[in-house]
From TrEMBL:
Pfam family, one: Abhydrolase_1
GO biological process, one term: proteolysis
Organism expressing this protein natively: Murinocardiopsis flavida
GO cellular component annotations of the record: membrane
Molecular-function annotations in GO: aminopeptidase activity
Nucleotide-binding found in the keyword field: no
Protein name in UniProt: Proline iminopeptidase
Family designation: Belongs to the peptidase S33 family.
Domain AB hydrolase-1 per the UniProt entry, residue ranges: 30-266
Keywords (A to Z) from UniProt: Hydrolase
Domain of life: Bacteria
SUPFAM superfamilies reported for this sequence: alpha/beta-Hydrolases
């Protein structure tokens, strides 16, 4: 469905009931709001893997403004503050209070910004494979370590040029380095990527723009779980350490490192990852 938010409409999909029978009454499940990566991608990378959490939370998937099926908006509004404001406004429209907000990759940066701008709004945060600032040299070195010089050069090209040619080179040389799994990208991944509604112009523009949101982390107040893959070249473990350093004691943050994972933790260490999410949602 499409939901009117802040002068545009966002594509939203909801999985599972918010109220379930419990004895003589009804019990309200928490809402898990899932923010996808990219930018320029959509929510479909969460499906079907995250459906296993639908028994403990109502899942709300959203395509960010300018992304996926929510592309029809003014490009001048495609920026971090607007994306964060949209999350709060979407919750207001849907009547969601105290959501648990999970942001993966770019979605994690949006989640941090939302939680800093509205510190009393979220119940909890999950920051999955994400970063508070773009450190080009660190990302380039990550791709060099995982995939060699061609990948390092392609990563630097995309992050400094943001052109169609650099985007194509990045896809050719860097995509396989997102996961240490030898079968990545598998036919299943290719199928999942094919299901996405893409906005490559937004991807190229954002990836070639440096940003630093570390200072805003001090405003976050809710319990926060940071999950990071030790072999992630695009949002490396050092980025997770920076997030942890910026979060205040009030956030009660903890870092969980997945030693055998890259950017796609659910693929390589899914059982541990989803058990961790399930415990964090229900605790």
């Amino acid at each position: 469905m499409r939901v009117a938010v802040n002068g545009t409409s966002l594509f939203v999909d909801i999985e599972g009931p918010g109220l379930v029978p419990d004895g003589d009454g009804m019990r309200e499940k928490p809402t898990l709001l899932l923010l996808h990566g990219g930018p320029g991608h959509d929510h479909t990378m969460f499906k079907p893997a995250y459906s296993r959490l639908a028994d403990v939370a109502q899942l709300v998937y959203v395509d960010h403004r300018g992304n996926g099926r929510s592309q029809d908006s003014d490009p001048a509004t495609w920026h971090m503050d607007q994306w964060g404001d949209d999350i709060r406004a979407l919750c207001d429209v849907l009547g969601i209070t105290k959501p648990i907000v999970l942001g993966w990759s770019f979605g994690g940066t949006v989640a941090m910004n939302y939680a800093a701008r509205y510190p009393d709004h979220p119940a909890k945060l999950v920051l999955q494979s994400t970063l508070a600032r773009m450190d080009i040299d660190r990302v380039v070195e990550g791709f060099r370590t995982e995939a060699g010089e061609d990948a390092a050069a392609a990563a630097k090209g995309l992050l400094t040029e943001g052109t169609p040619a650099s985007f194509a080179a990045f896809a050719e040389h860097c995509l396989a380095a997102y996961s240490p799994e030898p079968s990545f990208p598998s036919p299943e991944h290719a199928q999942a990527f094919g299901r996405m509604v893409l906005n490559p112009e937004l991807t190229m523009s954002f990836m070639s723009t440096e940003f630093d949101r570390r200072d805003s982390l001090a405003a976050v107040r809710c319990p926060t779980l940071v999950a990071a893959g030790a072999r992630d070249p695009i949002t490396p473990l050092a980025a997770a350490d920076e997030i942890m350093a910026g979060l205040p004691p009030a956030a009660g943050a903890r870092l969980e490192v997945f030693e055998h994972s890259g950017h796609f933790i659910p693929d390589s260490e899914g059982d541990r990852f989803f058990a961790l999410l399930r415990a964090f949602i229900t605790e």
